[in-house]
Amino acid sequence: MRKKIGSAVIGLGVALLSVIATGSAQSHGYTTLPMSRQALCAKGTVTNCGDIQYEPQSVEGPKGFPAAGPADGTICAGGNSRFAQLDDPRSGQWPATKVTGGQSYSFTWTFTASHATTDFRYYLTNSSYDPTKPLTRANLNTTPFLIVPYNGTRPGTTAVHQGTIPSGKTGKQLIVAVWTIADTSNAFYSCADVQF
Q: pTM of the entire structure?
């Protein structure tokens, strides 16, 4: 009887450790201002999002963007096929945050786990961008309009980065925010549709 109880306790302990390890591996961060596609899915503003509605913080992919990182057409999902709904342009119908070129803006991330951070980089689409087609590097200005260095420090539960929305844009555009992790080979990706 004692052996059975001992085995059950060990089994429960292993199961609990697996759940804890899995939960922390899936917890990271995403942008909430401007509202990212994954945040819109998590809030239920956009439906038919698949797993991303439960894990908006988990869009993790290879770092080194734009020279490396996710393949064209998979940038918003971080190259993760499990979150492919984020790369679906939905005929250009993703809800967009209204912005004005030249305005000061508080770019905001929400985190569920903190990591040693290299930096945060923000990119904006160029004049070739078509919101009805999946995003490629050719549709982006590959020079970030905002870089926030962290030099290995960790953000708290939220981070707010003050920057300026680039001027000279019209219509619907896309901001790609990249959180580069210092001590892994990955980064987190967050795409936010904006309307100028």
A: 0.86
Looking at the domain covering 28-195, what would its CATH class be? mainly beta
Separation between Cα atoms, residue 145 and residue 175, nearest integer Å:
10
Report the distance separating Cα 39 and Cα 57, nearest Å.
9
Q: Where are the domains of the chain?
A: 28-195
Q: Is 64 exposed, middle or buried (0-12, 13-18, 19+ CB in 10 A)?
A: middle
State pLDDT tens for residues 79-94: 999 999 999 999 999 9
Q: Is the dihedral of CA 51, 53, 55, 58 positive or negative?
A: positive
The DSSP secondary-structure symbol of 36 reads P
Residue in this structure with the two tokens 């990955």, named with its chain if needed: 186
Q: Could you tell me the pLDDT band of residue 114, with boundaries at 50, 70 and 90?
A: confident
